Request: fold
Amino acid sequence: MAHCGPKKQRRRRKHKHHFGGDTHKTILLMGLPNVGKSAIFSRFTGLDAMVSNYSGTTVEFYEAPMTINNETYLLKDAPGIYNLQNPNDDAERVAMDMMKDRPEAIVFVLDAINFESSLHLLMQVLEYNIPTVVALNRTDLMKSRGMTIDRSLLQNRLNVSVIPTVALKGNSLDLVKYALSQTIDKEVQYTVPTENKDRWRTVEELNEEAVKTTPRKNGVDRFAFLAKPFPGIPIALLVLATMFAFVIGFGMGLRQFLLLPFFNSLVFPYIRQGVEALTASELLRAILIGEDYGFLIKGIEWPFALVLPYVISFYAMMSVLEDTGYLPRIAVLLDGVFKKIGLSGSSAIPLLLGYGCGIPAIMSTRSLPSRKQRLSVAVMVCFAVPCVSQTGAFIALLAERSVFAFLFIFFVSIFAMVIVGLIMDKINKQSVPFTLMELPPLLVPAPKLLSKKILFRVRHYLKEGAVPMVVAIFFAAILYELGFFPALGRALSPVVSGWLMLPEAASTPLVLGVFRRELAVLPLLDLDLTTVQFFTGALVALFYVPCIAMIATLAKEFNVKTALLVFIATTATALFIGGLFARGYDAIMMLFG
Amino acid sequence: MKPIDTYPRTQSFDIENIHSLSRGEEGTISDVPEMSLLASLGLRLGKRVKLLSKSFAGGPVVLSVDDRSIAVDRELAEKITIRK
Reply:
């Protein structure tokens, strides 16, 4: 490649050193998207790689040490790709760079279901003459489809070991490791066609000879109805509504019947006793266990008893949905509608993820086909998609008073998403690339991989979400007891009382909300407000600054200017719409009441 | 066939294309734009395809080829010609 100058070389070499210190020998895991690469990675390394069914999760690749012949290698999970020739495609370029680094060996995941495309990619990989072992994966699905693949014929023609596996269940992966240990030190020279045309011809011939199929009546057609507008759309709505109901129901149950009683009867009394025994200082007691922002009380209650249950239930549901392979069907159904605002249907996936946490949502926009789409979706998430922490807070604030107000917030969220999308499309007009994607076969998720994934995500919340929340509450407690908030309330009074028609104390969440999304809501709980005022507060919180971590992610993924613009625009929109609602409601009440 | 970028996006063809199939109908691909992803997804000369569903609002069509489901942009589908 002419464009791979010395700069790239340097960067790559630097990368090689970063794990541990010395140069590690690497083993590369290669294959098509969604064929079980990540599952093999997860089984080989025991580390928590994310395994999911939509394309794009491995654009950021994973690496972890693995041992072969008593030697430690670095196993790298290359991005799933269809070809190894187009440097303009991000995933392909990453994979090509990895190949040019000359790994010691390659584990190639040959998908029995996508046999021809897999074989076509395998031949491109073999051109590099790096010792290769082939895992013929998803042989369980192959059998259930009445297919057989002649393994020895493949071995003889391609001169590589071929091991039938079922990666999701972990079957035969030891054999792959064994074959790897036998192959890794060998000098290899593979003979494969190098022109695309010849390669496809060879692939089709091999397919003809090696694969035997007994035709079955209803193959993929069986689930075709899921991608048809009818009944596909009603089913999608039903699935999402069920998901939503589960997230809220399960989360609420976890909170009311398990976590709150646990903390209230087994944790907080002892903390109170302990603090009272240790210090007599009124100020210190107030900061640590005070009624309003007592750090040791709210700092535990908010992140772990109010928000954590919804984080668990959201990621449980989302992970199931991802691993079944159903999400790309939603993308296909919505594709036409999304095109109207200059987006492709796959934008639905980052938006859905945004209901969990905005940070992974913004990162997952990387899998979208253009920068324009990435930016649009990221801005939509920042403006109008409440994260699960905030949803938990909305439930605490609104659902217990008025279910209607709570549901209405979500209608507002969806409506606002469309408006923001339209505006972004106007600002940044560009044609949408062609939609072309595979709908992966529907699967029953493997419990072991599923639980690993949920655990991984909950751990991510504890590290990236709960800890900053505790820190923010800590500072809030100190500032509160030092009398900072009343002063701030007076300063912001023209906005908060004058415009939004809320009490002065409601300025506190506006300040805290910059740090954590749900903190724009939770402090309102302890104020004595009317339902309309609660709703105004919720509306402001919905559009308000997403949270400082999301702004930082925006700056990292796009640039500082974008992040600042979003910061300013969200604040302005939130205050404008909140005030508009409060005053509009007031005016209507005056007219009719 | 010319690379896909050179086609004006609104141009349609008189000969039968994938998009003109009705649901459940099959055909054999007789001409297809040169695009490596199309080939990798199984949409190559001589392949037998079946139309599984059409979407609404200009959304993609879903095809089955080699027992895989592939969603293809409506405009792209109009550029893939078939024999029945």
Notes: The longest helix of chain B spans residues 36-40. The helical segments of chain B are 36-40, 74-77.
